[in-house]
Specification:
Elements (H helix, E strand, L loop, with lengths): L16 E7 L7 H9 L4 E8 L11 H15 L8 E2 L16 H10 L8 E5 L4 H9 L8 E5 L11 H4 L2 H8 L4 E5 L1 H4 L3 E3 H7 L4 H19 L2 H6 L7 E3 L4 H7 L5 E5 L2 E2 L5 E2 L7 E5 L4 H16 L3
Parallel strand pairs: 1-2, 1-4, 2-3, 4-5, 5-6, 6-12
Antiparallel strand pairs: 7-8, 9-12, 10-11
Helix pairs in contact: 3-4, 4-6
């Protein structure tokens, strides 16, 4: 599916990649930026979007359904209703590491991975917990050779810790870690490099039509809610009031540019508290990013929003 407006450049067919966006879109306010950026990027052939559950800081229930509704809302604002299939994921974390839930999201991932006569590689980009992709791998382990998972989540190595997306479903993390699927992990010390000031977002994003206004106003509103939430403020000093981390957007940097540093390391196990149990002798390797090019990611997003929506 092409972006809304034809760009003055062409992406060669052999450089286009298939993408499934797995997102806890109602969790806070950064997922929406990454979703919009992906849909505006002609290199990314977005095949569908899957709704992910999340841990509720504000007492929410039915969080996967809330993510599902938020995805539809973003598509509606973009006037892309019905252009991209949206699937419900698992309602909560996996019960254990061996029992699949068999969600609609999992079956969609499997269907896309098993699609024949496809020459474009498939990336499942996970902006929250790993539940839906783990569910798919439990239902059909053989798809592991047919896709790459990019995950925003996990604490800083080597210790790990109580990182939000990891704690959303440690069982799912271990399913993916112990599978054969190619995994690119962006831990919290790296995705936190995507910090941006509110004044910058207001300057570059807010003027970009209805979607720009929604992205910024939704983030500003959530920031006030988060800063006044007792549970969040006891758990962390973040957020700080006048800036935010667009922590899901590194996905775009990894798919659109090669300017990021990573290491290959043995896949660890994750304990229930989010800490890593390193396994130096594990022959199963994963890619762990050490840095990202935040300048490229922000400027690419601003430019695409302006090209498609400025002065609308």
């Amino acid at each position: 599916m092409l972006p809304i407006k034809k760009y003055p450049f062409e992406v060669p067919k052999n450089k286009i990649v298939r993408v499934i966006i797995d997102t806890d879109a109602a969790c806070e306010a950064d997922d929406q930026f990454a979703i919009v950026h992906a849909l505006l990027s002609p290199k990314l052939d977005v095949r569908g979007i899957t709704a992910e559950h999340f841990h509720a800081f504000f007492g929410e229930v039915n969080t996967m359904e809330k993510s599902y509704s938020e995805i539809l809302k973003v598509l509606d604002i973009l006037k892309l209703n019905g252009k991209y299939p949206v699937y419900r994921g698992v309602a909560d974390g996996l019960r254990d590491e061996i029992t699949p839930a068999g969600s609609d999201a999992a079956h969609f991932i499997i269907e896309e991975a098993r699609r024949e006569n496809e020459t474009q590689p498939l990336f499942v980009v996970c902006q929250g917990a790993l539940t839906n992709v783990a569910d798919a791998l439990l239902v059909d382990p053989d798809i592991a050779q047919k896709l790459t998972v990019i995950w925003i989540g996990g604490g800083k190595y080597p210790e790990g810790g109580s990182e939000f997306n990891c704690m959303g479903d440690p069982n799912a993390v271990n399913v993916v870690m112990d599978s054969k699927v190619a995994l690119w992990q962006v831990p919290d010390n790296v995705y936190s490099m995507m910090t941006v000031g509110f004044s910058e977002l207001y300057h570059y994003v807010y003027p970009c039509g209805e979607i720009g206004k929604y992205l910024v106003e939704n983030l500003f509103r959530f920031s006030v809610q988060a800063c006044t939430n007792e549970i969040m403020n006891e758990a962390t000093s973040y957020p700080v009031g006048e800036s935010w981390r667009l922590g899901d957007s590194p996905i775009l940097g990894l798919l659109l540019s090669e300017n990021a540093d990573y290491i290959e390391m043995p896949a660890p196990r994750v304990e229930k508290n989010g800490e890593y149990r390193l396994r130096p002798s594990n022959c199963r390797k994963i890619r762990v990013y050490q840095s990202i090019d935040s300048h490229f990611i922000f400027n690419d997003m601003y430019s695409k929003l302006a090209y498609n929506y400025a002065n609308l």
